Amino acid sequence: MTDPVPLTGEPLALDLVNTRPAGADLIATVDGLAAWLALEGDRVPEPETPAAADLAPVHAVREHAAVAVEHARRGGRPPGAALDGLAEAQRLAPAIKRLSWDGTALVATAERPGRYGVRLAAHLAEAAAVLLADPAIGRVRDCEADGCTLLFLPAHPRRRWCSAARCGNRERVARYYARRK
Ligand SMILES: [Zn+2]
């Protein structure tokens, strides 16, 4: 199953990994990446129109995050290359707190150097690092629907689908017809 609309609303690092559902890559192109960034809204740094050169660093972080999550969610030690990749992406654009005056008070915003793709990759790698070090990583599951590879972090232990609208309903209908045969 492929769905052209990315699943969002999970921890940012899972949303990133989920942009590559079975057989598809929803952020393979600049337009795809821009659409995903728009869906993520203020969870990603000051959205800019991405350029072709911005794709590679984001794809690299996604690959490292996917590998690390697959190991960590099963209680295993992720390959060093994946962890090094996440560290390197952050090293290329480390964040500082930039203070600005909004007229009445100081406001701190994260500021990173470099071109957009490198800053975005650093932000996503940091989100992955936070998730991977969180004990909640052990609760990350994959969707039970046939052919769906999306990952989610259930707030409720009985959640079985990446989303009810996407897979839950489809599976319920399939089971209903299977029972009637
Ligand atoms: Zn699903």
Strand content bin: 5-15%
Overall helicity: 40-55%
Tell me the number of helical segments per DSSP (H or I, 4 or more residues long).
6
Give me the secondary-structure category.
mainly alpha
Radius of gyration: 18 Å
Question: What's this entry about, in short?
Answer:
By secondary structure, the protein is mainly α. It has six helices and four strands.
Can you offer a commentary on this structure?
By secondary structure, the chain is mostly helical. The chain has 6 helices and 4 strands; from the N terminus they run ααααββαββα. The protein has helices at 12-17, 30-40, 55-72, 80-91, 116-132, 164-180; strands spanning 96-101, 106-111, 141-142, 151-152. Strands 1-2 form a two-stranded antiparallel ribbon. It has a two-stranded antiparallel sheet with strand order 3-4. Strand 1 (96-101) and strand 2 (106-111) form a beta hairpin. The longest helix has 18 residues, at 55-72. It is globular, with a radius of gyration of 18 Å. The two termini are 24 Å apart. The model has no long low-confidence stretch (mean pLDDT 92). The structure holds zinc ion (ZN). Residues 143, 145, 148, 150, 161-162, 166-167 line the site of zinc ion (ZN).
Q: What features would you highlight for this structure?
A:
181 residues; two-stranded antiparallel sheet; binds zinc ion
